[in-house]
Design a protein that fits this description.
The chain contains ten helices and ten strands. By secondary structure, it is of the alpha/beta class.
């Protein structure tokens, strides 16, 4: 039995969790800054890091208390080393190093995106099955990750410009419907109709994505409608954008499934909470009845420390320990990747 205390501060959530054997959550505490950053229409890095400093000690103390364990019973300290905002990451890194030094614990530097993938461990009562294909989609990342074995990662597809979550935020800004854009556009799209048509952006590479041009198409479409004197139906714009963006993403994912024949397909990241995506992917995977599709509980799609604890367990088993010399890395690649 291995108990890991995990810290996550890559963006605007200050989080700490205690996870046993990568699957049993003994505690999970998340302090969100969303109400603060909503005032600015997006995350302000300097503000985020300052709030992390204010909250980190209390969040860690509460997570340890709720776990029912003492620090003597904790086997290792895991933390998000990257990718993310450098100031935010630095707070979590320093907190983890301090705990490791004070209590003589091993350190586990974890890639944030691997945490999102391993959050799927909380959605099933059995182990992840390999080879595995992960669709990783969040505010800052859109990737197709091939995992031939446990804790082996190969990025086979990525966005060539905006991440899907970033595109949602930009379209919401154009429509004047607030931040964060993902939940807002998803909700509006449910009320929309197929009134407008948007072209799927062309991109090189069988599994790569592009969303920047789609945002531009939305802006140009709105300008044309306004010039023609037509009222803009925001719900219909949201519907057109979401169907086009998610359609491209699901099509690329299903192409990879057909080419690579994984045993399991998982979704990961904040945009994996999107209700329409879940339906589209589930429908598409019906043509592959022998391949298991796993979509994590919505509460584990957004940033949290339990997912870092889940990813830290196989890292612990593989002996992938860090040192007190390791620093935050805002562009940290997946383990084994050199891009």
């Amino acid at each position: 039995m291995t108990a890991i205390l995990a810290i996550e501060t890559s963006c605007d959530e200050t989080a700490c969790a205690v996870v046993r054997d990568g699957k049993e959550i003994l505690s999970s505490v998340v302090s969100s800054q969303i109400n603060v950053h909503t005032l600015y229409g997006g995350v302000v890095p300097e503000v985020a890091s300052r709030i992390h400093v204010e909250n980190i000690s209390a969040v860690i103390q509460e997570a340890v208390k709720r776990s029912g364990l003492s620090m003597d019973e904790i086997d290792a300290i895991a933390y998000t080393r990257g990718p993310g905002l450098i100031g935010s990451l630095h707070v979590g890194v320093q907190a983890a190093k301090t705990l490791a030094w004070q209590f003589d614990k091993k350190l586990l530097p974890i890639n944030h995106m691997t945490g999102h993938i391993y959050a799927n461990r909380f959605a099933i009562d059995h182990d992840l099955q390999f080879p595995l294909l992960a669709l990783v989609i969040s505010g800052g990342h859109t990737q197709l990750v091939w995992m031939p074995d446990d804790y082996t990662f190969h990025i086979i597809g990525t966005t060539m410009d905006d991440a899907i979550g970033e595109a949602y935020d930009k379209v919401s800004r154009v429509l004047g419907t607030g931040y964060p854009g993902g939940p807002v556009i998803d909700k509006m799209a449910k009320l929309g109709k197929p009134h407008y048509t948007l072209k799927e952006p062309h991109v090189e590479g069988a599994y790569n994505f592009s969303f920047s041009g789609l945002k531009t198409s939305v802006t140009q479409m709105i300008a044309r409608e306004e010039k023609a004197g037509n009222p803009i139906i925001k719900e219909d714009v949201a519907y057109a954008f979401q169907e086009t963006a998610l359609g491209a993403m699901v099509r690329k994912t299903l192409a990879a499934v057909g080419d690579l024949s994984p045993k399991m397909v998982v979704t990961a990241g904040g945009v994996a909470a999107n209700s329409r995506l879940r339906v589209m992917l589930a429908d598409g995977m019906k043509q592959y009845p022998d391949i298991e599709l796993v979509q994590p509980p919505i509460k584990y799609c957004t940033d949290n420390a339990a997912m870092i604890g889940a990813s830290a367990y196989p890292a612990y088993c593989h002996g992938l320990f860090g040192t007190l010399a390791d620093a935050a890395d805002p562009s940290l690649p997946m383990p084994g990747e050199t891009e």
